[in-house]
Fold this sequence. Notes:
Layout (H helix, E strand, L loop, with lengths): L15 E4 L2 H11 L3 E7 L6 E7 L5 E6 L11 H4 L3 E5 L3 H10 L3 E8 L5 E6 L5 E5 L8
Parallel strand pairs: 1-4, 5-8
Antiparallel strand pairs: 2-3, 3-4, 6-7, 7-8
InterPro entries: Glyas_Bleomycin-R_OHBP_Dase (IPR029068), Glyas_Fos-R_dOase_dom (IPR004360), VOC_core (IPR037523)
Organism: Kribbella turkmenica
Protein name: Glyoxalase
Amino acid sequence: MNTTTEKKIVVGVWPTLVYRDGHAALKFLTEGLGFTQICLYAGDTEGSIAHSELAWPPGGGVMVSSVGRQREQDDFSWLAEHPQSVYLVHDDPDRLLARAIAAGAVVVRGLRDEDYGSRGFTVKDQEGNLWSVGTYRGEIVE
């Protein structure tokens, strides 16, 4: 029996993003935003990604894959028309914004303080997906 008060957090929601260039996405997400790559499984064509998992240091994660030969029958035309969007909680968005820009992010909404107590920004990655970062951790429900 665990006698500490620590609880293991199990991630029950995984945003999943599909990219045309999965390796460029992984580089941006790890070097630009600070994710940690947990695993990577190669796809069926050279350079494609069947599945990868990235951990967000404060908790949670995302899954990333890329379009490969096995997925050719799927219609991924929506990727260009409808960017995907993910919100990340971070204690120091000012510092993270500079890191994201250095990795090639395009600023969509610069740093600002919100009425609900968050400070954050939104950037666009190389394929148009939106990454919003802020200090807001959600409402606490007891």
